[in-house]
Structure formats: structure tokens, C-alpha cells
Amino acid sequence: MIGLPGLPRRRLAARRAEATKLYEAAERGDAEAVSRLLQSVPVDATADDSQRTALHAAAQAGHTDVMQLLLDAGADADLADEEENTALILAAAGGSCAALDLLLSAGADIDAADAAGCTATVAAAAMGHPEAVSFLLERGAAVNGSGSGRRQTPLMAACGDGHSDIVELLLQRGADVHAVDHTGRSALMYTAWRGSLPCVAALLAAGAPVNVADHETGVTALIMAAMEGHSQIAGQLLAAGAEADAERVDGRTALWIAAAHGHLEIVRSCIERGADVNHAEHEANTPPLLIACRGGHAQVAALLMEHGADVHAIDQYGRTALIYAAGSGNASIVSALIERGVDVHHEDINGACALILATNGNHCHLVAPLLEAGANPNCRDSWGCSALYFAATAGDAEAVQRLVLHGALCTPNDDGQTPLHFASQEGRLDVVNLLLSGPSGQEMVNAQDGTGCTALYMAVGRKQVAVAERLLEAGADPCLPSIGGETPVMMASQRGLADLLPRLVAAGGAAALAMRGGRLMGCPLHFAAEHAPLDTVRFLVTAAPEAAAVRDANGLLPVHFALMRGRTAVARCLLELGQLPQPAQPLLQALAQAHKPALMPIVAARVPLSPAEWQLIPPRCPGLSAALPAVLARSAAEAALLAARLPAAERARARCAALSLARAQREVSGGYTIKPR
Predict the structure, then answer these.
(1) Distance between CA 348 and CA 630 in Å, rounded?
(2) Is the dihedral of CA 649, 650, 652, 653 positive or negative?
(3) Pseudo-torsion of CA 257, 261, 262, 264, nearest 10°?
(4) Looking at the domain assignment, is residue 410 inside a domain?
(5) Does residue 81 form part of some domain?
(6) Can the keyword Glycoprotein be found in this entry's annotation (predicted)?
(7) Which of 333, 461, 623, 648 has the most crowded CB, counting CB atoms within 10 A?
(8) Is 7 exposed, middle or buried (0-12, 13-18, 19+ CB in 10 A)?
């Protein structure tokens, strides 16, 4: 007999389901359910890929009655899960001495370690269970025991979590304060990172070495304390002989790190112990003063300068303390450095001076003190931008005016952009007014950058309507194209700026709506048909109906773009108000492809159709009969073609209507009309 396919898999699933029930019963301490399930489920069955058994669950939760049931049923006390946790390790993490006693009595290995090298004693110490730690030590656990993984001792675990009572206990039992883990970190380094004053005091009293550095980064306990901002611990370590100038492999000392983070008291303690205030780290040769200035830590910077920090130091980026202070926006540091005679003209490797860094960081309040100290308002960075550009971008009219009064020029940057470009695209109307009223205003108003964009183009592109209107008042040309051929009018059409378009069109005249540009050489109506609101489209097609018949480089009309975007209302507006191309076959085909037969009667009413084109209009086209008067006025032959597309019932009515209309037209043309009775 052939066995059923998949039977082993179903059996495995059933077994796991039963094992899960046993695990969950043990976890919640349901001894009755555990006893019942053990009659059919192996005691060491695992519920999932974690390889945890019911004994693991009961031990972690401290359910000793369930543990006893499982052990009596033959559970393996040393069976490990996927991460090599034994029931003893899990019980220690849970802190149950009774559970530990039960497992040890069953022969569990007291010094077994998990995959990370964590023993039961380490687990109890890390979780803050002093009774469990004491119990394990009394039962013979190694006080310095650790596995082959991270080699973390119970003392390190207790220090890492700030359990000072366990630290005292372990030290009393002879814990080794010199031991290090796999990275070379000692218990003192763990507690310096954690920030426990009692633990540090206990370790120092026990003779813990203070200058041990780890193998990977060179971090010491003092550097750990500085990194975390533990000022009191840093003071304790320095008082105990910690080397103030010990450095990591990257050259950063405790003083440097504290200065970078603004930890004033740690900086003070390091200086008092003789730390070098000018020691630079290796990566950029940056000394503590520069890094403090970069962070805007005024008190730290003042303390460093008071103790001899070099105010003229330069890092490998060419930056000075003043440049960093200006970039951080701290006025008090800037003033202190200027008083000490620093060079306000110094430029970094990108050509930026302190004045540029201040304005680029939107710290325009520093413009006045820097200019008063003699800063060059026309200093330009490697992209050709001066402080005036950044102040204009920030929209600080006062700073812009001050720079202009000090002789700042509005010459274009390397990309051909002027300060007016920057202010316009950000919508800084006050600054735009200032720049336009200045001596370079007329030069800038129609200046084109490297991509052909004017300030007006940028303002329209960012929908800065008020700025665009001001630029138009100043004579901005809405027809100047970018190198892609797009004009401000096209951009406004695309953005749907219905309120601005009349102003642009008035300023640009008929040419504004007729110009073609962009990647596909479309006119403004192409852009609007694809993106703009209906009101914008209606304005454009009303102002220039002929634009509706303009084709782009691919031969597409504005209505094609509306149809591709599913904009039925826009397409209807274009067909009703715009000039339609002839022959109409491509247009009718486009409507058919877009599944918009309801728009075909508009075309039929407005332009003559050949018999072949009438065939493109589907029979029973909705709304087609409404086009009859216009078609009949144009041609009786076309009216017959229209009637042929109508349903039978409508066809008879249409013919009667056509005859009546034709008779009325003849009577009108003959000089008389039939008066109603």
C-alpha cells in the first residue's frame, strides 16, 4: 500500500503542537497539565527551533513543583537550547535559589556557559540577584568563571549594570579586579561606562588598575567616563592616578572627548591633572578648542583658552576655532576669539571664511561683529558664493543690507547664479526688494544662470507668487527660456499658478503662450494639460485657442496629455474651447484608446469629419445626437452619417429633426420664417 504523501510532516507538526502545550503549561506553572501531557509527550521535547524544553521554561519562571515533575520524569538537567543556555543559567537569570538548588541536586553543571560565555553566576550578577549569586558561590561556582565567548566575569556583569551590592559580595569572595574580557575591558571600564559611583569606589578600594586600555580602540576607564559624561567618576579615576592624556587609537583623549560633548567639569578635571589642551586627534589634526567651538560649547572653549589653548590652530580642513565658532553660531566664542586677535580673513580648504560659515549656517547675527572686525564681505568659497548669497537665502534683510553697505558685490557665482536667484527661490520678498533697489538690481533681474534659469523662473518653480509678481514689476521677462527651453510661463502652467499666469501672459504678450520648449518641445498648454488645475487650463486655452492644436516633438496635442493622465474634465475643456486639428482621425483614435467615447460628439460638432472618421465613432455613442444641429448646419451628408451611428429609435427622431431643421434653414435663407401659431 502506498503511504499518504506528507504524512511525516503532519506527524512532526502534531508532535510540535503537543510539545508547545507542554512548554506553555510549564511556563505558567500548571503542574496538573504538565503531569497529564507527560503521559504522551517526551519530557525533553522541543516546541520550536529555539530548542527550549519544558524544563527551561519552568526553570526561568521558578516553578519548582513543575521542575520536580519534569526531573522525576527524566528531564536532562544540562540540556542546552539553541543559544546553549541550560536550565541552570535560565534559573539564575530568574533569581530563584530554590530552582537553582533543585537543578544542582539533579546534577546540573554549575559552571556551564552559553554561547556568549555567560555562566549561571554571570547571569545572576547581570540581572541583579545577590541571593542567587551568593547561593551559587556557596555551592562551588567559580567566582571568576567565564566561558570561552566574551570571557565576561560575574564582576564585570555586575559592574556593567551598576549592582553595587553584588560587586561588594564578589570582591569579598575574591573576584579578580585585573581580569579583562575578550576585548581587553576590565570591570572598572564596565562601571565607568555605566556610571555607578559606588561600584567605582569599591573597585578602586580593591586595587583595580585605572589605566587598562582595551585591545580594539584603546579606550580606558577615564575615556569611558568622558564619553558618557560621568564627571564625578572621571574625577575619581583621575584622583586614583588615571592618565589624563591617555588616548584612543584615533588620538582622542578624555579631554578631547569631553570638549566635543561640552562636559565642562570633565574638561576642568583633566586640565587640573595636567592634560594637554592642544593635543590633536589623528584623523583631522583637530585640537580640543576647535572641536569645542564646532559644538558651540562656550564655557568649555573659554576654559581651554584660559589654560593656553592655541587660538590660531588649524586642522587639516584648513579650519580655525573662529571658523568653527561662526559655523556653530555662538556669538560669545566669536567675540572672545576676535579679542584674542585671530585672523578673521582665514579661509578653509574650500575657500570659506568665518563670515561665509556664519551665514551659511543661518547665523546672520554674527555678520555685524565679523564685519566690524574687518572680515572681507566679498570672500568667496570654491563655488563662488559669498556671504551675501547665504544671507539672501536665509532671508535676513538686515544682514543683506549690512553686507551691501560694506561693499558686498552681487556678481554671479560659478554656476551663474546671483543673490537674487537665491532669495527668489526661497521666497525672501524683503531681500528681493533690497536687491532690486540696489545698484545691481537691473543687472540681476533677467540674469540667467548656467542652466538658463532666471530669478523669475526659480520663483515660479518654487511657487513663490509674491516674489514672482515683484520681479515682474521690476521688468523680469517671462519668456526667457532655460537651456531646456522651458519659460516661466510654462513653469507656471505646469505648477497650476492660475493667479499668476495672467500677470505673466500680460508681461510676455502673445509670444508667451506660443513659445515651445522643454524636453518634448511643448507649449504652456501641454504642461498645464498634464499637471495644472482646470481653471489654469481654461485660462490658457481661452487666451490662446490655437495652442490646443499645437503638437509637441512626438506629435502629441495638449489633449493627449490630459487623456494619458485620465483628466477627463481637462480634456473636455480643451476640446470645447480650443482649436481642433484637421484631419480629426488621430484625435478620435486617441479618444478611443483612452476609452472616452463620450467626448467624441464634441469633435463631431466642431470639425468636419470624413466618412472614414465617422466610422471611428462607435454606434450608440453617448451624447452623439446632441451634435446633430451643429453637424446639420455644416453638412446634410454628415448629418446622415451621424444618424447612422444612432440607435434605431433615436435614428428616426434624428431624421425628423434633421428634416425640420433643414426646412427651417431653407425658409430663413428664403427670407421668411414660419411663425408659431
Answers:
(1) 75
(2) positive
(3) -40
(4) no
(5) no
(6) no
(7) 333
(8) exposed
Grid cell for residue 22: 507542554
Q: Report how many domains make up the chain.
A: 1
Decide which of 6 and 214 is more confident.
214
Residues 532, 528: Cα–Cα separation, whole Å: 5
- Give the long-range contacts of residues 207-212, CB within 8 A, separation 24 or more: 207/177, 208/177, 208/178, 209/177, 209/178, 210/237, 210/240, 210/241, 210/242, 211/241, 211/242, 211/243, 211/246, 212/180, 212/184, 212/185, 212/186, 212/188
Which residue range forms the structural domain that includes residue 574?
486-602
Nearest partner of 354 among 317, 382, 379, judged by Cα: 379
Q: Which residue has the cell 573662529?
A: 322
Instruction: Inform me whether the pLDDT recorded for 555 exceeds 50.
Output: yes
Question: Identity (one letter) of the amino acid at 386?
Answer: S
Could you please report the per-residue DSSP string of 210-274? S----TTT---HHHHHHHHT-HHHHHHHHHTT--TT-B-TTS-BHHHHHHHHT-HHHHHHHHHTT
pLDDT of residue 674 exceeding 60, the answer is: no
All cell numbers assigned to 668:
430663413
Q: Which three cell numbers stand for residue 400?
A: 543683506
Q: How many CB atoms lie within 10 A of CB 140?
A: 9
- DSSP summary character for residue 440: T
Length of the chain: 677
Q: Does the CA dihedral 577-578-584-589 come out positive or negative? A: negative
pLDDT given for residue 660 in this prediction: 64
Cβ pair 240, 210 in contact under 8 A = yes
Is 497 within a domain? yes
**Cβ atoms of residues 394 and 402 within 8 Å:** no
421/449 Cα distance (integer angstroms): 8
| Distance from C-alpha of 359 to C-alpha of 394, rounded to nearest angstrom | 8
From the DSSP assignment, how many helices (H) and strands (E) are in the chain?
A: 42, 0
Is residue 547 assigned to a domain?
A: yes
Give the sign of the dihedral formed by CA 55, CA 58, CA 63, CA 69.
Answer: negative
329-371, pLDDT tens digit by residue?
Answer: 999 999 999 999 999 999 999 999 999 999 999 999 999 999 9
CATH number, position 536: 1.25.40.20
Alpha helices, H only, 77-220: 87-94, 97-105, 120-126, 130-138, 154-160, 164-172, 187-194, 197-205
Distance CA(292)–CA(256), nearest Å, equals 8
The dihedral through the CA atoms of 564, 567, 572, 578 has a sign that is negative
One DSSP character per residue, 274-341 reads: T--TTPPPTTT---HHHHHHHTT-HHHHHHHHHTT--TT---TTS--HHHHHHHHT-HHHHHHHHHTT
Task: Classify 555 in phi/psi space as left (phi over 0), alpha (psi -120 to 50) or beta.
Answer: left
The answer to whether 429 and 470 have CB atoms below 8 angstroms apart is: yes
Give the rounded distance of the alpha carbon of 95 from its chain centre: 43
Which of helix, strand or coil describes residue 497? coil
pTM summary value: 0.81
Predicted confidence (pLDDT) per residue in 446-501, tens digit? 999 999 999 999 999 999 999 999 999 999 999 999 998 889 998 998 898 989 99
Q: Pick the closest to residue 269 from 299, 241, 234 (CA basis).
A: 234
Q: What whole-number distance in Å separates Cα of residue 454 and Cα of residue 416?
A: 10
- Buried b / exposed e along 199-209 (16+ C-beta atoms within 10 A): bbbbbbebebb
